[in-house]
Amino acid sequence: MVIKAAVPDVSVRIADLTLRAPTLMGSGCYGSGEEYAPFVDLAQIGAVVLKSVTRLPRLGNETPRLVPVAAGLLNAIGLQNPGIDSYLANDVGKFADRPCPVIGSVAGFSVDDYAYVTERLAARDEIAAIELNISCPNVGHEGETFACDPHLAEQATKAARAVTKKPLIVKLSPNVTDIAAIARVVEAAGADALAVINTVRGMSIDVDRQKPRLGNQSGGLSGAAIRPIAVLAVWEVARAVRIPIVGQGGIETARDALEFVLAGASAISIGTGNFTDPRAPIHVADGLREYLAKRGYSSLCDIVGRANPGFLGVS
Amino acid sequence: MSALETSAAVCEAVVCDRRQPASDVVIIGLSAPNIARNARPGQFVMAITQGGERVATALGIYEAQGDRISLMLVVVGPRTRELALLEPGDRLALVGPLGNGFDLGALGEDVALVAGGVGLASLLLPAQQLIARGARVHLYYGARTAEALVDAELFASLGAGVSVATDDGSRGHRGYVTEMMEREWRGHSAIAACGPSPMLRATGAAARTLGVRAALSLEETFACGVGACWGCVVPLARSSAQAPKFPEAARGERREYVHARICKEGPVFWADELQW
Q1: Where would a tag sit more exposed on chain A, N or C end, judged by fewer CB atoms within 10 A?
Q2: Closest residue by Cα to residue B41 from B105, B118, B93
Q3: Which of residues 200-229 of A touch B (CB under 8 A)?
Q4: Nearest 5 degrees, angle CA B233-CA A96-CA A120?
Q5: In chain A, which among 269-288 make CB contacts under 8 A with chain B?
Q6: Do the Cβ atoms of B10 and A278 come within 8 Å?
Q7: Which of A65, A214, A252 to mutate to test binding with chain B, by most B CBs within 10 Å of its CB?
Q8: Looking at CA atoms only, how far is residue B186 from chain A in angstroms?
Q9: CA dihedral defined by A197, A280, B218, B215, rounded to 10 degrees?
């Protein structure tokens, strides 16, 4: 008798949304998916998280907006986007034919912004879920304030929760003293999942010109340089909440992704890793299946939090 | 300079030859059939490097013939150092061809090409195609030193006129290539240029003085190279045909320009539409 080994199940559930792969494409790094469609079979990725949209149009920061640094990338784009009115009228309709779920990302500068933009965006059928970007480090202090103050994080989450039943993911900032405390508050405020982490604040200075290199002066650091910071953040959050965690920060390979899963992430997100190699999402998902199969696991769920003795589990 | 249907893909190219015409300039020949067949003049590829900084490296497509392309690079950091060490037989993943490229038809019948350093890489295909259709071409080519002026003879052998400038005067005009072009101006119909930003700005200013249009291929650090991340933008007049559709803000940000992506709407823009 031939026993056919089953392909391990790497699908993920976030509230009532099922993703066929645990690989999300990070907000701001993947456009709307269309930009990468010539290079990647989007049917094989979990979901695309769209670039953040705000109430009003934003031209974004002055250039330079990018500085490659050792093992990473500093960016300060500044939430360039056409604003929710134009976005709904001209862009969202095009997402209907994407072969994977599309998750809207909402940024704001007030609690009311989060409610207003979330309600309008979530009402569209093309949008499978909402990610609340309360942690953009590149728009002055207002952007990240929501992720750095437990009360504001709670208010923004409650405001978004009140206006949609779609899955709500809240993206947390690493630029805080106690990320677990923020995570608890956001869970209690009604989030269905947490994205951990956004970029780490940083700066690079041109010593010849004696000025910061970025137009915005400071920026957000991503890439391999921040992976250990992100893994620890997931580890700490996984000991504080029971909702799924989408781990992110410097993931380029399946082994990178496994660190996050073993720390307690149910899914992972790839951002800068797509810039290093657009094939990364496919390699990561294949590598996860291979790892599970080799060790006899039938599902990715079997190893979530396995390295983390304080992992509360996902309920 | 319209965005055409993409023929871009990821491919595993194989290095087939390598030459080093100057101490820090390397030209790598690669077997990359899809890119070679589909490349338009002025397009680029993203070369996927392994270590160091977490972005691929954008390089103009220098030659494209049959199944072979070549890439010209100057060693400036860890990524270009890694690329410069490639040997025949090595593999290199490439994404491309990307970007809009030059609209050669809009340049007329007597074109000034202006190259600064390895900006030359984006001007060989335009020169070949312009000459093939009967246009006159003159290359104004600047570099730091005589040694860094690579392949000027190749352009001359195609039938292009060539004038060179060096920063140190070791060959040709001593000083800026744009100065030399203005001094030697041959009544050209338009300019196509590629090089560092200061040279391109000077080219735009010269074009205004000379009363012709200049198509500039901009050099910038790209992260994605495919229009996804909005990291490589340049202020572009809202009236430009290349400007992304973008509403005016209700307050605060009412400006006459929009940020266009150099990797997607460009890298080639008309100088008189840039507001940089």
Answers
A1: N
A2: B105
A3: 222-225
A4: 75
A5: 272-279
A6: yes
A7: A65
A8: 35
A9: -130
Closest residue, chain A, to B221 (C-alpha): A66
Residues of chain A neighbouring B252 (CB-CB closer than 8 A): 56
CA–CA dist A161, A143 (Å, integer): 19
Q: Is there a contact between B249 and A83 if contact means CB atoms under 8 Å apart?
A: yes
Residue A148, phi then psi, degrees to nearest 5: -100, -10
Token reading at A149: 């103050």
| Rounded CA separation A106/A108 (Å) | 7
- Distance (Å) of CA A202 to CA A142, A216, B54, B257: 17, 11, 15, 29
Write the CB contacts of A89 (distance below 8 Å, at least 6 apart in sequence).
none
**CB contact set of A130 (below 8 Å; sequence gap of 6+):** A103, A104, A105, A106, A118, A121, A122, A160, A164, A166, A167, A168, A169
pTM, 2 dp: 0.94
- Averaged over successive runs of 10 residues, the pLDDT of chain B (276 residues) comes to 66 97 96 97 94 88 98 93 96 96 98 97 98 98 96 97 97 97 98 97 98 96 96 95 81 76 98 95
> Are B195 and B221 spatial neighbours (Cβ–Cβ below 8 Å)?
no
